[in-house]
Amino acid sequence: MSGATWLPPFVDHHVHLQLVEADRLRGSGLAGVVDLGGNPAVVARSARGATAAADQGAPYVRFAGAFLAAPGGYPSGRAWCPDGAVREVRSPGDAEEAVAEQLSYGVSVVKVTLNADAGPVLDAGTLAAVVTAAHVGGVPVVAHVEGGGMTALALVAGVDALAHTPWTEQVDDGLVRRAARVGQRWISTLAIHAHDEDAQRSAVDNLGRFHDAGGRVLYGTDLGNGDLPLGVNRDEIAALVLAGLDEDAVVAALTDPWPGTLHPDGLATRILGVPPDDLAQLPAWLVSAEVGRRH
Ligand SMILES: [Zn+2]
Hints:
Elements: E1 4-7, E2 11-15, E3 32-35, H1 40-52, E4 60-63, E5 67-69, E6 86-88, H2 92-104, E7 110-115, H3 124-136, E8 141-146, H4 150-156, E9 161-162, H5 173-181, E10 185-187, H6 197-212, E11 216-218, H7 234-242, H8 247-255, E12 267-272, H9 282-287, E13 290-293
Parallel strand pairs: 2-3, 3-4, 5-6, 5-7, 7-8, 8-9, 9-10, 10-11
Antiparallel strand pairs: 1-12, 12-13
Helix pairs in contact: 2-3, 5-6
The structure holds zinc ion.
Zinc ion (ZN) binds at residues 14, 16, 36-37, 222, 225.
Organism: Mumia zhuanghuii
Protein name: Amidohydrolase
InterPro entries: Metal_Hydrolase (IPR032466), Metallo-dep_Hydrolase (IPR051781)
């Protein structure tokens, strides 16, 4: 087959560069990555390194800085959690300081954790103060939600995006519609549940209803968490198709410049051939993508 299809740049909207170095993503189909939690000084350094190496095929990096968490809250104490990656937030006043610290590193988004299954979570007042301070600083807020009621807590607080499709609860239709209506984005991360059928079924069901309601889905894999392919993940795309996304919706999820409004200049995606008619062939076709640079 001759000829190529050109698409906007592909982005993995959920990675951890302290667990998988940006260098290892050179030559993959990913033109950009969004780091959703780490030691902000270390991640900021990786982002600068990737920018300097853009000509050698490193992806561009946007990042969230530290995980803002309740004292003792997730992911404090997790074996994979790097030193300095958690910033405990004690009060609404402290929330302003915590957000200012992240902004001083040049973050594009602020990350909070709301994991009721793994310790204390931020109270509504402190969470609201994080959201307000981030918005005043011009960046959105993304939340890790896990455990009963956490999706609702994030939505009521005005959180802009979920770092994972909820998988520990069936999100009720009213909440799903409301999330879609206010423009909340859900980062997919469906393939991380490959070894937990119930969790994956639940996440695919939640994401499918969110998409049907007009919700904005972002492709993301939590790259760095466990053993995932370095590049565009075929299983993640297959799961998006399973959730009911068609070709245009999958491409939209891969090419959204969130948390920015534009991609850096000069980037595109190049794939040999034309999109397959059969959706079952779509994952393999998209995985063959290369970053095309236009100078
Ligand atoms: Zn993650």
